[in-house]
Fold this sequence. Notes:
The structure holds 3 protein chains of 3 kinds.
Chain A: E1 27-31, E2 36-41, E3 48-53, H1 62-86, E4 93-97, E5 102-106, E6 110-112, H2 113-122, H3 139-156, E7 159-160, E8 169-172, H4 175-179, H5 183-188, E9 194-197, E10 204-205, H6 209-226, H7 234-244, H8 248-260, H9 265-268
Antiparallel strand pairs in A: 1-2, 2-3, 3-5, 4-5, 6-8, 7-10, 8-9
Helix pairs in contact in A: 3-7, 6-8
Chain B: E1 11-17, E2 22-30, E3 37-46, H1 57-79, E4 88-94, H2 98-115, E5 118-123, H3 124-136, E6 142-146, E7 151-157, E8 160-166, H4 172-182, H5 191-199, E9 213-214, E10 217-218, H6 221-235, H7 248-274, E11 278-282, H8 289-301, E12 305-308, H9 311-314, H10 318-330
Parallel strand pairs in B: 1-4, 4-5, 6-11, 11-12
Antiparallel strand pairs in B: 1-2, 2-3, 6-7, 7-8, 9-10
Chain C: E1 8-10, E2 19-29, H1 32-40, E3 49-52, H2 59-75, H3 83-90, H4 97-104, E4 125-134, H5 147-159, E5 163-165, H6 169-175, H7 178-184, H8 191-194, H9 200-216
Helix pairs in contact in C: 2-3, 2-9, 3-4
Family (chain A): Belongs to the protein kinase superfamily. BUD32 family.
Main location (chain A): nucleus
Enzyme class (chain A): transferase
Amino acid sequence: xxxxxxxxxxxxxxxxxxxxxxxxxxxxxxxxxxxxxxxxxxxxxxxxxxxxxxxxxxxxxxxxxxxxxxxxxxxxxxxxxxxxxxxxxxxxxxxxxxxxxxxxxxxxxxxxxxxxxxxxxxxxxxxxxxxxxxxxxxxxxxxxxxxxxxxxxxxxxxxxxxxxxxxxxxxxxxxxxxxxxxxxxxxxxxxxxxxxxxxxxxxxxxxxxxxxxxxxxxxxxxxxxxxxxxxxxxxxxxxxxxxxxxxxxxxxxxxxxxxxxxxxxxxxx
Amino acid sequence: xxxxxxxxxxxxxxxxxxxxxxxxxxxxxxxxxxxxxxxxxxxxxxxxxxxxxxxxxxxxxxxxxxxxxxxxxxxxxxxxxxxxxxxxxxxxxxxxxxxxxxxxxxxxxxxxxxxxxxxxxxxxxxxxxxxxxxxxxxxxxxxxxxxxxxxxxxxxxxxxxxxxxxxxxxxxxxxxxxxxxxxxxxxxxxxxxxxxxxxxxxxxxxxxxxxxxxxxxxxxxxxxxxxxxxxxxxxxxxxxxxxxxxxxxxxxxxxxxxxxxxxxxxxxxxxxxxxxxxxxxxxxxxxxxxxxxxxxxxxxxxxxxxxxxxxxxxxxxxxxxxxxxxxxxxxxxxxxxxxxxxxxxxxxxxxxxxxxx
Amino acid sequence: xxxxxxxxxxxxxxxxxxxxxxxxxxxxxxxxxxxxxxxxxxxxxxxxxxxxxxxxxxxxxxxxxxxxxxxxxxxxxxxxxxxxxxxxxxxxxxxxxxxxxxxxxxxxxxxxxxxxxxxxxxxxxxxxxxxxxxxxxxxxxxxxxxxxxxxxxxxxxxxxxxxxxxxxxxxxxxxxxxxxxxxxxxxxxxxxxxxxxxxxxxxxxxxxxxxxxxxxxxxx
Lengths: 269, 357, 220
């Protein structure tokens, strides 16, 4: 939810964004296979929100299209609510119109974890980070642990995300960083902040070790391909997960199996 | 054309395909600089089983054995090239039905020994992909491969055709074929073709069928079971959810709309994933105009385009085996006689694609 | 006009094109039964959303319901007879319309226990009024000069027997019944809330969010 798409609207925005000149004009942030993301406001200027819009797919039969939008967006909304009330850090749901294909969720100030890690790594010399080196106290290790803790709380709640990547996690800006705008300050706090999980479009409710292990495995693969220089630090995610989640041991045992038969998934990366 | 291209530098392959109910033999030529593939002949004979039945391996193998010589002679006559000019004999190594594959492999070996030509075993799916690329000119498309035996979403990366998504149970063509049997629709020229024609008369209602997409994978067995149930209900005179009677045409329409939407969706996911805007549809189901239309709509929304071939190349044929085999042959690939087996299971991503960068 | 400033015009982002929304709080309303009867009789002079102030946590809570109802109004997807009833049902976490009116509108008077017993006294209640007006196209949308709003206010002052008050979060903190809200929105035994021990502001903010989420999930 950080950088805005530089182009102005290539597509017509959803109707809900055209009724009223909102105090802040809507901004198209991204467009993916599943839909588009706008930044706008809910009720008033002091409630910035992300509007996820699934435009109708005109090539699909309209009845089928409406049915799919309804079940998928409805499913995502239900999962958000379930996570939020359990204290799992996810954006709050503000409003939803299943027939029109949009939902408004809390705007998370900050940047994707992927971007934060890459910016932080960009400042380091071109070496592979290794837990054996004296980098245990680096902010990156701390961030990995926070990710593991959050994943533990997610799985404890009975939800598997289905599409875990460092792009689907936000690093929520800390107040302290907001006050210190200097360059030194922004470096100092580069990896600080709470980890917030986003994009639950493929999430399901499950208590199965297998599903949880696959969830971790997908992240492990994505992490390795996105941040190859920090790949070895992924172990800190799993360690923190083990501490945070009582049922972690059996999930991590299953993760070994999943890795072994990762033949097909390994191509998906 | 022949006058400007020295015949010695032109390479020619004969391809034999019989992994399912089509027996196909084709002859292809690659010109000197490899920039063009010229179809010299493409002959096919299809084993058509009676309505309400599928083609069994034993009967199909028998058909292929009975027609091989006739089809091969026709292919040679159409091409008008002397046997001495042929560089290699290509055959389908798999995947497919064991009996029919073996019959054709034996025939290919026979030609190899008879004429003293080297053999090239070809992956059937790679044959479809390479032929589709050659005919349409799509350079680096996401490929949707849909046939009676296969349903895969494929993209090329680092010397392999990688499978991004596939069916978790039966193939989409198998689903259509079996539903045609349920409705006792004719298998001539193909059950899928007849379903498509019938579907054009439907559309008053969209009957609700399961929609089974998981990430980039999909599943069809649950849909078939539900469609069969609806067909039984229709025959028993039951009414649809809107209180009106429904017809076989409505069933075919609803089935096509549902399963093609799934196929287009997983293709779109793969396109977003690899950042491609080209789609190539290959395999027998790829002939379906409704599928092509839906895929075209999706590609257009993404600012891209869809590539498809007509029934000469979409449906199993010998020329695609000849073409893909010749591409491998040109990189030095050979299949020694003692290794010229075939296999029912042969994944697309097992093939090392040496001829692409 | 008398106390006209108490009749606040609401601006709701992404929702109020072509319409004006006005609101006020009436404290200690004594003629609730009469008002309810007007609603039941579909009296067109009483096209208001009357909302039980005891069941509203905050302005954002109420505004969320108005936003939802306004969206349905402009998209022509109202599930009830007009935008005013839609505001009331939008507050409920499920689709049960009768339940929504009883919970968030003017509740029915308590039933008499025996036939020969005189009807119980109906206690006064704090009532929020919301009025949606078509924007007068001849007037500027930027100015609060829609004459219909003045007429509406005059009608409310004449017919709602209570003390007109400006609708603020402070007033709502006084009127709200938290136990009721927790029951309606399933907020008992919520880990998120249970973990907040001290910070009352944070606690209220999280409660508000959970309530708004439940409302958004009404259609699922």
